[in-house]
Amino acid sequence: MSMLSIEPSNLSLSLTLGLTLGLTGCQSLPEKPHLPESQALSARVNALYQQDSKPKNNDSTNNKNNGGENTDLVAAISEQNNVHPDLSGYHPIVTGANAFASRSILTGMATRNIDVQYYIWHDDQAGQLLLKDLWEAAERGVIVRLLLDDFNNNAKFDQRLLRFASHPNIAVRIINPLMHRKFQTLNFVTGLPRINRRMHNKSMTFDKQITIIGGRNIGDEYLSNNQNSQFADLDVLLIGKVVADIDNSFASYWSSPISFDIETLVTADKGTSKDFLASLDKLDQDEKNNTRSSLAVYKTAIEDSSIDTDLINKQVPFRWTDMQFLSDDVGKLTKTVPANTNLVHQLRTLLGTPTKRLTIISSYFVPTKDGVKTLVQLAEAGIEIKILTNSFDATDVTAVHSGYSQWRPNLLRSGVKIYELKSTAAEEKRENKLWKARSQSSTSLHAKTFAVDDYQVFIGSYNVDPRSANINTEMGVIINDEELASQLHGALSNDLLNQAYEVKLLESGALQWHTMENGKKVIYDTEPRVDMGDHVWLTIMSWLPIDWLL
Predict the structure, then answer these.
(1) 489 is annotated as an active-site residue
(2) Any catalytic annotation for residue 448?
(3) Catalytic residue among 122, 132, 200, 422
């Protein structure tokens, strides 16, 4: 089975690239990707952890606590690590508000270094607030290394990152960069197929002690503050043994010859301010527009969070268990490592073949012909299989829906259960749900997780699609825990019908969509919110040989 990620902007452009023939050419990037200054910064990080003494207790505070209370993240976690030397602890981060607050507060608690790796970092309020937090950490003496994929950047954000990297304690690198910074369309003519391969990894690690990984990028829609669109997602907070593996993975990507210091790619625009904090235009946007501050959403999230005091008092309910960290080798981006090193092969080796049940939650679910064959064989062998993905109305990528919808009859016929998230999904208030969404805006599933049998759960950046398997780099953890597996399996049931459709196959071969609306069961005989034009487009897309790009 091709257990396979791609964000919407990447996909739409990739489709254009994949259908463009004979337009590749040579690009030249700087000969030396790493400047002495950033190399020296990394050497300083290494030196910090070669010392036996504890890090200096700075007056490190976060936005929530300006009282000057000293916080030492190492001391807060090391005692728990010592009790479980061969295990790792995890705590799910379900809501976007908690996802933002955790990143912001932990940034305020760090005393040594913060390593950050993301596919998307939007230049919106969430992105600017977290950059501001990182800048303030650097002002305290914390070393910050920010590694970003380049596919979703633009010339304006380049300038902001350049100002951000001007701090002596901050380095910014762009991996597999586009050569033409201001006229980016040229890259799609001269850079194919190199720029079609993207780093989709997502992690934020503090003092080499605690990390956040999962499906979320950095942006308002991922962190619950976009009035038009919300992503239902899942992150996990990790401590213990697995953190060292995540740290080593970051180091390999950071030191790669295809990770370029921002200063080697971008020249400062003439006449622009060099003051980084003064450049954060989204942070006073509401005041200028004389509107109620949407920044209050983030402020409230921080005020409502107690993760700082809970960590110090060892009250975060970490569950300790055996975990395996998985990551694609950075060489996947340059096609210099064999395919059998890919994360998908690691998954197959570690998870094996399900013997009882398989539950998949994937925002972009493109099983392909071979994957469908495998799922059908498992289902016909008695394996209980349940899948949650986006409905047509909820997906932000129509082409992905075409790569999935054509396989529904085959899967349903074999006994696979399929649920499709509605764009109007209301917030689910039960504690055992692994994802939540806000009802006042359009909701789209963005989580990437699956459970195998009674104890194995994967959480990370990896979707079940060919792009995640074969083109982009991905990362995640396998958590061996019966309670988490039970929660995930149980999340896909009739209780989900307020937020999703269950797709069913009639004896005639027709499909129906069953759901609950206003407390009543509703059955749709045609795909909800899909008009004739949509049907035509989906049919045409399903005929095209583009599954490998999805």
Answers:
(1) no
(2) yes
(3) 200
